[in-house]
């Protein structure tokens, strides 16, 4: 008897063919990797092919693999991972695409395929600096527009560069250098002689 995951795997191999770089089935989930050059057409196929029908984009996020596996990762640094849902067939899929250039990560936008990708792609741009070619409104969404850098990159400083606060004298928000002093927190342990004894 063929399982649902085996049906999905066969449908993916049939529909995507050479566009499919890898297909992994683990823990009851299917993950595929496609090349950046095939990403847009593969995503259209995933949505439109009758055997697949992934009508809904559930999530899209960026990933920085620079320290993955304790630094033994040798592939591209940035990836975009999408989670898709087929309501028609009641199955899910994870799609991973790596940006070919680590210095300027660029991946095609899927906002024309799934409009829900708009804010997800803006978030990946804001936090990881991944550019989405074809996105018509790619600007920061969670950090301030004047923010420098991308805070989810593994090489971003832990304390950041500037902090903002409201100044009651100037009656406006001001920016100033970060004033966090690094310190080591050592928990204070208090032991009672009769603790736990009845």
Automatic annotation (TrEMBL):
NDH-1 is composed of 14 different subunits. Subunits NuoB, C, D, E, F, and G constitute the peripheral sector of the complex. InterPro entries: NADH_DH_suC, NADH_quin_OxRdtase_su_C/D-like, NADH_UbQ_OxRdtase_30kDa_su, NADH_UbQ_OxRdtase_CS. Belongs to the complex I 30 kDa subunit family. It comes from the Bacteria. Its main location: membrane. The lineage of its organism: Bacteria, Pseudomonadati, Pseudomonadota, Betaproteobacteria, Burkholderiales. It comes from Oxalicibacterium solurbis. One of its GO terms (cellular component) is plasma membrane. It is found in: Cell membrane. The gene is nuoC. The keyword Membrane applies. The keyword Disulfide bond does not apply. It is an enzyme of class 7 (translocase). NDH-1 shuttles electrons from NADH, via FMN and iron-sulfur (Fe-S) centers, to quinones in the respiratory chain. The immediate electron acceptor for the enzyme in this species is believed to be ubiquinone. Couples the redox reaction to proton translocation (for every two electrons transferred, four hydrogen ions are translocated across the cytoplasmic membrane), and thus conserves the redox energy in a proton gradient. This is NADH-quinone oxidoreductase subunit C.
């Amino acid at each position: 008897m063929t399982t649902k995951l085996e049906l999905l795997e066969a449908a993916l191999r049939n529909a995507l063919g050479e566009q499919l770089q890898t297909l992994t089935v683990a823990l009851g989930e299917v993950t595929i990797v496609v090349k950046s050059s095939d990403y847009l057409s593969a995503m259209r196929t995933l949505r439109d092919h009758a055997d697949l029908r992934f009508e809904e984009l559930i999530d899209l996020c960026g990933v920085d693999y620079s320290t993955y596996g304790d630094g033994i990762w040798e592939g591209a640094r940035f990836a975009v991972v999408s989670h898709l849902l087929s309501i028609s067939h009641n199955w899910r899929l994870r799609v991973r695409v790596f940006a070919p250039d680590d210095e300027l990560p660029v991946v095609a936008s899927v906002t024309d395929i799934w409009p829900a990708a708009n804010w997800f792609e803006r978030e990946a741009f804001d936090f990881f600096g991944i550019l989405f070619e074809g996105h018509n409104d790619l600007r920061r969404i969670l950090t301030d527009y004047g923010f420098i850098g991308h805070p989810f990159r593994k090489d971003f400083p832990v304390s950041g560069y500037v902090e903002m606060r409201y100044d009651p004298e100037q009656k406006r928000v001001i920016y100033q250098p970060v004033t966090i002093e690094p310190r080591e927190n050592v928990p204070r342990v208090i032991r009672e002689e009769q603790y736990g004894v009845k």
